[in-house]
Each structure stands twice: as structure tokens, then as C-alpha cells.
Amino acid sequence: MTIKKTLLVWFTVALVCVNTVLANEGTLAFVGATIIDGTDSEPLPDSVLVVTDGRVRSVGPRAAVSIPEGAEVIDVSGKYLMPGMINAHGHVGATVGLNANGEYSTENLIRQLGLYARYGITTVNSLGGDEAAGFALRNEQYRSSLQRARLFVAGSVIAGVDEQAIRDQVNRNADMGANFIKTRIDDNLGATQKMSRPLFDALVEQAHVRRLPVAVHLFYLDDAKYMLEVGADLIAHSIRDLPVDSEFITSVAEEGVCYIPTLTREVSTFVYEDVPEFFSDPYFLKEADPAVLAELQTPERMSRMANSRAAQAYKAGLEVALTNVGALHAADIPIAMGTDTGPPARFQGYFEHMELQLMVDAGMSPLDVIRSATGVAADCIGMSDIGTLEPGRWADLSILTANPAVDIANTKTIETVYIAGNRVPQP
Questions:
Q1: 40 within some domain
Q2: I need a labelling partner for 348 at 20 to 30 A (CA). Which of 90, 110, 121, 170 fits?
Q3: What is the pTM of this model?
Q4: Does residue 395 lie in a domain region?
Q5: Which tens digit of pLDDT belongs to each residue from 271-314?
């Protein structure tokens, strides 16, 4: 499957032109691990990964890789080394606790990007709600001293009642330096009015004039087919009303468009009708705010969710979404891991690991899921210098104590995370 390239190359090149890489002088050599490199290659046991100035210098079997004189040698024998994961659809900056509009600030952005990083999510593609502080952090991340998750931004979500307003919004986001243009073709289960279809035509046209790809929030199969017709570049949510059909599969394959399931988004709409099992998971609890957990477990809140028609509709939609992931994967459609985390009760970092398990439940192998969260996701968002452990790419990686290619739950065995060759600080 060839992923849609043209527009993604446009903004990748633009980013390279805007940012200057600041180099350090350190060289690290990770020795002895089984390396899962994020490409189509099989895991490589007893390998060496050399990092210089924050980027992968060389990688391969121990006998084939020369360790530079003076390098810091890190013995990772018996462990597993994989690329840092990419959330192809997340959100960063606005939420504090359960307040969706708590504080969009540099401080809150850095806090959340640090949280993602500690869970092994080293890049977040934020698809909407991004303000100037987010753009500034995006512009500062091309340096070898980075210790937080990378951030790409879409700016405001495009919506309006006339064509000129739509084009003006696209231009404002483009002028700020957005990586994507994000829009919604969704009626929130009949609760809101969609934009008229001609406005989406104008939106996609203007985004492409500005050499930016379009990511679309959707729910219905018919809307997904339409957005493919008008040239959307990234399907940012699962189709949840109907099973995908041969017409859609053929269309998405021909267009080379990537598909982001965001399965945990559906989970978040109903799981708090009771006390979730993961509330007892130490891997979750290590970063969870007890006050938030307490509020989510109040009888009044759980009752509201249990009696919510929308929650129950999304619960049913999850089953359709899982079936569709399996069908699209079987058809070799590129699937990128994404979660829509960032809004309240969609726990950044932990939900990404839940997403991986759901993708396996949908029929993907653990190794294919790892690729979806690394190399495939990087291709889908147009980033050629992250996502795999290949020479020249940023050394964003996790060291694990158990093999995630055998059991995807082993992604939770992260021992250490590095971004640009820098160890991510723990709280």
C-alpha cells in the first residue's frame, strides 16, 4: 500500500526549512537488545544501536556495527528496543483535571508532553485546539537536547457557514504554520448540524492551495466516501455506523489515505458507567491524579453515563469500529495508531497502550500494531525523520524488559525512554 505522499511531503519540507538543528557532541551505543526498528523488518536480536548528536548513526547485529571510540556504552542485553510511539491523533494543552478548558499554556503543554513521553509516546500529532504556545513549542523541538514528546499542530478546527469564512480560517491556520488542517463532518449522533458539503469542497481546495493536508473527523461511512472524493488526506476517526464496504476499501486504497481508528475514544464515552478495570492497574495509577479518579467514581457521574443514550450508542459503535479495523487491515490499508486523547478522562499516555491492545483485538498482530504506532504513523503524518530506528532519524526510543512483538501488553514494560538520545526525566 502506498500512502498518499504529495501533500505530506509539502509540509515536511517546510518544517525542515523553518527549523535549525542544534547538535551536541554525545555518542551513545545501546548494546545487546533485540531491536524492533518500526519498519517491515523482523526483530533483530543481540544488536547495537549507535546514536550521535541525537540521531541514529548506525544499527545492526553486534558483529556488524562498530562502536565509536569514546561512546557511552549502555548494556541492554536481554531487553527490547523499539522506536518511540507516535499518536497520530491526540490533543495537548487545554485540559486540567476534568476541565476541558482549564489552561492552554506553555506550562500545561510541557506537563502533558512529558506525561506522554514517560509512557513511551514520543510524538503527538495534535489535531485541533492548538494555540500560539503550541506552535511555539513545535518550532522549538528540532534540537538534540529535547526531553519531551514532539508536537505537531493543526490550529483551530475549521467550521463556518460560508465559503469565504472557511477559506479565511484555513489561511489563518496556514499563516501560523499548521501541519494539518482539521475539520469535522459529524452531527454528534444527530445533536448538531453538519456543514454543507460544498463548504468541505472549498476547505479541501484551500488547504491544498496552501500545501497542507486535511484530516477529517467523521462517524458515518457515507461521509467518509464523500471526503475521499473531495481529496481529504487523513481519516482521523473510525467509521462507526456501518461495516466498510468494497467501494470504500477500493477508494481509500486508490487514494493512499491513512486510517486512524481512535478506538479508545469510544471507550472513554461509556467506560466510566462503572469502575473501570484499569483503575487498579499500577501502570495507570503511577501517573493518575487521585482527585480525578475519585470524581469519575461518584455514583451520580456513573449513573449519568450509564443512562446516557450517546454513551450507549458509542459503545455499540466501538464494535463496528473494531470490525472495520480488521477489514481494513486485511485489505492492507495503512492504519496509524491514534487515540484522540487529551480531552477529560481520556488519559494521555495510558490510553495509547489500551489502543494497541484494542488493535490486536481487532485482528492485527502485535508486530503490525507496533509498526502502526511507529513507522506507519510517521509516514501517515508526513514525518520522515521519526518513527523508525534507521540511520539519520531522531533517536526517539523505548527500552522494554519484555517482548512486545509476542504480547502487545509488554509495551507497558518500559524501563527507559529516550528522545533525541536524551533520557526522559521521571517525576
A1: no
A2: 170
A3: 0.94
A4: no
A5: 999 999 999 999 999 999 999 999 999 999 999 999 999 999 99
